[in-house]
Amino acid sequence: MRILALESSTDWLSLAIGDGTRWIERAERAGTRASERALPLAQALLAEAGTTLRALDGIAFGAGPGAFTGVRIACGLAQGLALGAGLPVVGVASLMALAQAAWRTHRVGDVIACLDARMHEVYVAAYRRVGDSFDEVVAPRVVKPAALAALPGRWHGCGDGFAAYPELARALDLASVQAAAWPSARSVAELALPRFLAGEGVDAAAAEPLYVRHRVALTTAERDAGMRL
User: Fold this and answer.
1) Could you report the per-residue pLDDT of 84-132, keeping only the tens digit for each?
2) Does domain 3-94+183-224 have CATH number 3.30.565.10?
3) How would DSSP label each residue in the chain?
4) pLDDT digit string, tens, across residues 41-75
5) Pick the CATH number of 95-178 from 3.30.420.40, 3.50.50.60, 3.40.50.300, 3.30.930.10
């Protein structure tokens, strides 16, 4: 089974194609240009892999939480490509993709994934590796950093929430922190592949982003103060 994965919930835009044995990935720090860069990057990746969209078996995307526009871009592009090619879709929580990266690079299985959510908040979730997948210990949510408390056991942190709020590592009593980590398309693909194999792919129209913050606009005063969603 060969799939395409997309992830753009942060400033990074990445895409990956593979079958679990070999992955080809492209990534760039696109920021606000993600919408214009996503499709050309997908076309270039397909060409590099020597395949076509219709030759794939499914499309996965990072469902969030994350930057509202970025999450919508990944979901919308996955839907559009899948609809045109008649392919099933799987959405993967972007915070779980962070945990997958920590597992792949450092073999740490108990992970607190944390992304800067702006507005003095973080997106956070906790995952425990069980076999070839993760159990959700704390579901994705958006909170003030001061509201977080340490979990029982030995946990490892990953994500730029720990760069934005360095005090969190001590507050959560973490064994290690990878503050430069970000959710990648390869991590999304690695988590999505067994779900496709299990028949969990859905029609493109049924694909949905994962929102934990429902406010998507700032007041004029908040924008003038430099706040971002």
Assistant:
1) 999 999 999 999 999 999 999 999 999 999 999 999 999 999 999 998 8
2) no
3) --EEEEE-SSS-EEEEEE-SS-EEEEEE--GGGHHHHHHHHHHHHHHHHT--GGG-SEEEEEEESS-HHHHHHHHHHHHHHHHHHT--EEEEEHHHHHHHHHHHHH---EEEEEEE-STT-EEEEEEEEETTEEEEEEEEEEE-GGG--PPSS--EEESTHHHH-TTHHHHTT-SEEETT----HHHHHHHHHHHHHTT--B-GGG-----S-------HHHHHTT---
4) 999 999 999 999 999 999 999 999 999 999 999 99
5) 3.30.420.40
